[in-house]
């Protein structure tokens, strides 16, 4: 390491790093927000920013096209430029394309809504979904919706296969974000232990009290979580008696996704 590398960061460098982190925080928040977007006051409160700071960041991101104002309102949403930037990344992270056939098969066989969730920093993101043929489906969870890791059943299923140090960091950093969901670190840790013991997690939804989810992690060759497959449906649709039917199907699909990702990587 050179003297230049080891020198203390200047105030300007720290401020620049902080600005980048805050800007990415705004983008992640908007990416998981409702279609009608968020007001400046809501963005500032969610990220613990002053109103002038939030406005300055939003203005800069708006100028770059990654944030847009919802027409006729004072709300902000993710911009089209963010989608175009993501196109190149999609080629490098092909899990949605690899998982698509399995999602089709699962939704047809189980007849309920099936979701693919992936970890992203401290969040889980619903990367894809399929609706089944049963008359009542979960349609409120959009592709791109975000939850702090630990809130969703899929998120907890993925956390179960993360290193202990990572789990501790997630619970600490996401702690303030759990409050709106009325979930505690103790509850999350209990779910993690259950998921490790069973290899899957079945639990009632925290965000919608009438829903239940069954989630199975998709693991890489080293046993680390790449994603999770989940079935989300009204509680009446997922009684304990259906677990012996659904869990093996989810496990088989998760293993198939893992194998296909390995084959694709070897062929690249």
Evaluate the radius of gyration: 20 Å
Count structural domains: 2
Q: Which blocks of ≥5 consecutive residues have pLDDT under 50?
A: 1-6
Averaging pLDDT over every residue, what do you get?
88
- What name is given to the CATH topology of the largest domain? Beta-Lactamase
The structural class is alpha+beta
Binned, the helix content reads 40-55%
Enumerate the strands of the largest sheet in spatial order, edge to edge or round the barrel.
6-5-4-9-8-7
Q: What is the N-to-C order of secondary-structure elements (H for helix, E for strand)?
A: HHEHHEEHHEEEHHHEEEH
What is the CATH superfamily classification of the largest domain?
A: GAF domain
The first-level CATH class name of the largest domain: Alpha Beta
- CATH-scheme architecture of the largest domain: 2-Layer Sandwich
Broad shape: globular
SS element count, helices = 10
- Report the biggest beta sheet as strand number plus sense, adding barrel if it closes: 6 strands, antiparallel
Number of strands: 9
Note the beta-strand portion.
Answer: 15-25%
CA(first)-CA(last) distance: 34 Å
Give a quick rundown of the structure.
With 268 residues, this protein is α+β, with helices and mostly antiparallel strands.
What does this structure look like?
The protein has 10 helices and 9 strands. With 268 residues, the chain is an alpha+beta fold. It has 2 domains: 3-84, Arc Repressor Mutant, subunit A; 93-267, Beta-Lactamase. The model is unreliable at 1-6 (pLDDT under 50). It is globular and about 55 Å long. A hairpin with a 5-residue loop joins strand 8 (211-219) and strand 9.
């Amino acid at each position: 390491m050179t003297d230049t590398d080891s020198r203390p960061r200047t105030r300007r460098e720290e401020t620049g790093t902080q600005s980048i982190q805050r800007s990415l925080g705004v983008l992640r928040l908007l990416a998981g927000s409702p279609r009608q977007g968020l007001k400046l006051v809501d963005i500032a409160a969610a990220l613990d920013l002053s109103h002038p700071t939030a406005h300055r960041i939003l203005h800069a991101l708006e100028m770059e096209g990654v944030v847009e104002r919802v027409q006729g309102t004072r709300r902000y949403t993710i911009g089209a430029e963010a989608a175009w930037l993501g196109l190149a990344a999609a080629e490098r992270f092909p899990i949605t394309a690899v998982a698509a056939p399995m999602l089709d098969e699962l939704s047809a066989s189980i007849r309920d809504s099936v979701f693919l969730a992936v970890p992203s920093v401290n969040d889980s993101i619903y990367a894809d979904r399929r609706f089944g043929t049963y008359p009542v489906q979960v349609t409120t969870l959009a592709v791109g919706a975000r939850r702090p890791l630990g809130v969703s059943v899929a998120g907890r299923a993925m956390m179960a296969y993360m290193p202990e140090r990572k789990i501790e960091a997630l619970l600490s950093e996401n702690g303030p974000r759990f409050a709106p969901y009325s979930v505690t670190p103790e509850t999350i840790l209990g779910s993690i232990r259950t998921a490790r013991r069973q290899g899957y997690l079945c639990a009632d939804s925290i965000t919608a009290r009438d829903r239940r989810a069954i989630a199975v992690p998709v693991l890489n060759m080293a046993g680390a979580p790449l994603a999770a497959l989940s079935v989300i449906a009204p509680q009446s649709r997922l009684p304990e008696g259906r677990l012996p039917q659904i869990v093996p199907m989810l496990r088989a699909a998760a293993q198939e996704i893992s194998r296909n990702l390995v084959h694709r990587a070897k062929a690249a």
